[in-house]
Amino acid sequence: MKDEIRILHAITRLDKGGSAVNTLLSAMALAERGYRVDLVSGRTGEADNRLLQRAEDSGVRFIVDKDLVRNIHPVRDTLSFVRMFRLMRRNRYDIVHAHSSKAGLICRAAAKCAGVKRVIYTPHGHVFYGYFGKALTRLIIFAEALLAFVTDRIIGLTTAECDEWLRFGIGKEDRYAAMPSGIEFDELKREADEGIDWKRELGIPPEGRLVGSVGRFIGIKGFGYFIEAAEEQAKKRDDVYFMLVGDGPLRGEYSGMVASAGMEGRFHIVPWQENIGAAINSLDIFILSSLNEGMGRALIEAMFFAKPVIATCVGGVPAVVSADVGILVEPGSSRAISEAMDRLLDDPQGSREMGGRGRGKAIAEYSAARMIDDLDRLYRELLGRA
């Protein structure tokens, strides 16, 4: 019986972002299907409170581990390991499903020591480039390779992500499964219907076109390259405007770049919105400028709203953005982003057709229901209850 299956989901933090949404949706849906679900995370400062409340209402039990932090910290990491070990021994979970790098390392090791039946890991991308120096990166890869031996399944968000992990020598092919992050499309549409029309809110004229992106303002997201590409476009087009939605430590730097380029009236930096669907739906073109990305959840959301997308060719993104739904560009190049903008802005009809194909692909391949069905099937298979 599924109501006898005890699951512990673990994630380093539940801050706004694709990995947190994926984890919360998974925990919530499994609880609604009769699983007993606990979710442990470190302290969170920028959570999606509406989704947290929905998960709690569904029966998910939340546990906060104050020592589960993103940065390497030998003392706190040890304390977190001991706390996770005790939690797992006390509750005798059937499955521990770890998400994100730090929680993945600590909780998989604790699960092995605690005798948990099955251990699953969804890394949501990786930190093998773009985050740390060479020595620390090599250490992380070594640790991931060791823990792969005690992990029953490593779930990549795309087949490309799985292949990339294998190229780093981590685990064997039969331990991997590709499972795209699912989107609640009905909820996303409701957000858009009830939300702000950002073109009107920002005073953009009816004939104006809005190009934008959303995400945390951190270096790995590459938003500086988007701003530089926007500056190039602003020099030659009067009818194109730009919007970047989010928050983070680089907000001041990005605002300074916009001011230095004299784009205050053309490039709008908007604080993070609970109703992100409305923000994405207001765009004419969506940009993903990341230097490293597991899948790019916001890409799927933009495709659902029939927006043509421009995305960097990193991580699992090429599995999402085929040539018929968007344009892939090299990472770290504002020129490549600007040239892709030229292609879409100069061909409005082709852009609309591209967006329409993207919507069809998003609905067919990336629904939350499909993700949960796949996860449910995997759990039952690993426990011999299929």
Structure in words:
This protein has 386 residues and is α/β, with parallel strands linked by helices. It has two domains: 2-182 and 367-382, Glycogen Phosphorylase B (Rossmann fold); 185-365, Glycogen Phosphorylase B (Rossmann fold). 47% of the residues lie in helices and 16% in strands. It contains 16 helices and 13 strands. The protein has helices at residues 18-32, 49-58, 74-91, 101-114, 134-147, 159-167, 185-194, 198-201, 223-236, 251-260, 276-281, 297-304, 317-320, 334-345, 348-365, 368-382, and strands spanning 6-11, 36-41, 61-64, 95-99, 118-122, 153-156, 176-178, 209-214, 240-245, 267-270, 285-288, 309-312, 326-329. The protein has a seven-stranded parallel beta sheet with strand order 3-2-1-4-5-6-7, with helices on both faces. The protein has a six-stranded parallel beta sheet with strand order 10-9-8-11-12-13, sandwiched between helices. Helix 1 (18-32) links the parallel strand 1 and strand 2. The longest helix is centred in the first third of the chain and has 18 residues, at 74-91. The chain is globular, with a radius of gyration of 21 Å. The model has no long low-confidence stretch (mean pLDDT 92).
